[in-house]
Write a structure and sequence with these properties.
Elements: H1 2-19, E1 28-29, E2 33-36, E3 58-61, E4 63-66, E5 73-78, E6 82-85, E7 88-90, E8 98-103, E9 106-109, E10 112-114, E11 118-123, E12 129-131, E13 134-136, E14 141-146, E15 152-154, E16 157-159, E17 163-168, E18 174-176, E19 179-181, E20 186-191, E21 197-199, E22 202-204, E23 210-212, E24 219-221, E25 224-225, E26 243-244, E27 251-252, E28 263-266, E29 274-276, E30 278-287, E31 293-300, E32 303-304, E33 309-311, E34 315-322, E35 325-335, E36 340-350, H2 360-385
Parallel strand pairs: 1-4, 2-5, 3-6, 4-7, 5-8, 6-9, 7-10, 8-11, 9-12, 10-13, 11-14, 12-15, 13-16, 14-17, 15-18, 16-19, 17-20, 18-21, 19-22, 20-23, 21-24, 22-25, 29-36
Antiparallel strand pairs: 26-27, 28-30, 30-34, 31-32, 31-35, 33-34, 35-36
Helix pairs in contact: 1-2
């Protein structure tokens, strides 16, 4: 009887594996967090682990917070080490979404921040790192620093805000490898701020891209500006004449010039493939050394199908119906600097191929299920022989 129950249990388990989708980590809903002082880094305030030291920082992560009356995360008067990462935060236009006030040793990483007056706001704060955050659709600033020094802002993306990154009365900050695009007014705006380094950032389609009213007090170097029109006679991707920063006498002496086309157009679809006639899903991805493609066109047999495709900054997917016979799929890309790239796939749609192309996740799950069933059967037979 035990062996029969054991076999039935394993059979149920294998069937569960077959029909249950692979799990993915979801963000946990959480109330807005307010931490005033090191002692308030507690589990009730979203802290998942850590002791607040440099080697063991407090961790606040994987939360989904929406606020209609205040900041989603407000940390004040702390010098303990902490990390806020991988959170989705949506605020209200009356206040900032993330606030660090009189904070030292914080790290804000990989968060999506939207809907606030400011996305991330630092006041009177030093030695903090903001990295890999996406700040969009905030009323005023994507990221704002006021009376703050010695902070590092790296690989953040600010788009569709009024200002991308704003510094007021702030010194010795480092802004590197940030992307500021399609903000209503300025990409990077410095006011009464000095000794800041602004290098290797991409400022695209902001009006204008950069502003600095502190004459010759900040370092602007090796940034890409979508409105730079200077020559690059030796094609070293560095402009031959400086880029003038609006607001004063500051100049970027080495503005970047993008002469590289979009790169790495790739697709699971191989050129010369035979696919099933009828419904067909096309997927492709792309990347770029310079600004990501801003114009994407998908042609199916010479007919523009872009309107029916799902286009992102790094990829495209499109469901089409293919009649039996030969077809050509062409992807055309144009980046912010006007560089172009294209890739074509010549394929054949065949009724004979119908039913192929099984989803690999299902194949994988099926194999796992088969192994479980065979193992259960073997165990059952072994127990019967005893």
């Amino acid at each position: 009887m035990r062996t029969k129950k054991f076999f039935i249990s394993l059979l149920i388990l294998s069937l569960a594996v077959m029909i249950t989708p692979l799990a993915s980590a979801d963000l946990a809903a959480h109330a807005p967090i307010y931490i005033d002082g090191n002692s308030n880094f507690t589990r009730a305030n979203g802290v998942a682990s850590g002791s607040g030291t440099e080697s063991d920082p407090y961790i606040i992560e994987n939360l989904n917070i929406s606020s209609t009356s205040g900041a989603c995360i407000n940390i004040t008067n702390t010098d303990a080490y902490f990390i806020v990462r991988n959170c989705t935060l949506s605020g209200t236009s009356s206040t900032a979404v993330i606030v660090l006030n009189n904070v030292t040793n914080g790290r804000v990483e990989g968060n999506t921040v939207s809907g606030g007056s400011n996305g991330i706001y630092l006041f009177n704060s030093t030695n903090n790192t903001l990295i890999n955050n996406t700040c969009n659709n905030n009323t005023y600033f994507g990221i704002a620093l006021e009376s703050s020094s010695d902070n590092t802002l790296t690989n953040n993306t600010c788009t569709s805000d009024s200002y991308g990154i704003y510094l007021f009365s702030s010194t010795n900050n480092h802004l590197t490898d940030n992307i500021l695009t399609n903000n209503t007014y300025f990409g990077i705006y410095l006011e009464s701020s000095s000794n800041n380094n602004i290098t290797w950032n991409e400022l695209m389609f902001n009006t204008p891209n950069a502003y600095d009213n502190t004459d010759a007090a900040n370092l602007w170097e090796y940034n890409f500006y979508s409105d730079y029109t200077g020559p690059d006679s030796n094609r070293d991707r560095i402009g031959d004449i400086p880029y003038n920063i609006t607001g004063g006498s500051n100049r970027d002496l080495h503005p970047l010039v993008d002469t590289m086309p979009p790169l790495a157009i790739s697709s699971p679809l191989a050129n010369g493939s035979t696919v099933a006639a009828g419904a067909f899903q096309f997927n492709a991805s792309y990347s770029s050394i310079g600004p990501l493609p801003v114009s994407v066109r998908l042609l199916i047999d010479g007919v523009d199908a872009t309107h029916s495709a799902n286009v992102t900054a790094t990829g495209i997917s499109c469901s089409v119906t293919l009649s039996e016979g030969a077809h050509t799929i062409t992807l055309l890309l144009t980046d912010a600097a006007g560089n172009t790239a294209s890739e074509s796939w010549m394929i054949t749609a065949s009724e004979a191929a119908a039913g192929g192309g099984a989803d690999m996740t299902l194949v994988y799950v099926g194999i796992v299920a088969a192994v479980v069933i065979l193992g259960a059967a073997a165990a059952y037979l072994a127990m019967r022989k005893r």
